[in-house]
Sequence to fold (149 residues):
Amino acid sequence: MCVALKEETLKVCDIESCLNKQYAKGICQKHYMRIWTSKNQEKVQGYIHKPRGREDNLKAYLKHRYGLSIQEYMSLVDEQNGKCAICYSEPVIYDRLHVDHDHETGQVRGLLCYHCNVALGHFRDNPQIVQSALDYILYSVVPSEESAG
Fold:
């Protein structure tokens, strides 16, 4: 489609001097939300002041991101005795274990402490890089002070 025809068919907001594309009812999203908000002050106040605790946020996050219920998450915590699946330490940072998952399949692999989760992320979940890091740690020779002189 040529640019001239595309511009001709693009519908813009009906509000004067606004060039944003139409969102609903002939106006752009910004103007639509302004009008809706002004007409629905009670609902807006309810959203703003709705109490959500840390557990509610975690519940919503687990469900949205990994498809896990809080009960399934707690079951994984129990299976791992509350410890990281890699280093077997209890969580210190953020006071919880992080869900580890395969980035290609979305399959949950287990729960990790903050440091192990970040490390796997830096290794891009690549077994060859993890093996190279292991080899580096195991076989790198650090010269001692005696042999340096």
Summary: The chain is about 50% helix and 5% strand. Residues 100 and 110 are 5 Å apart (CA to CA).
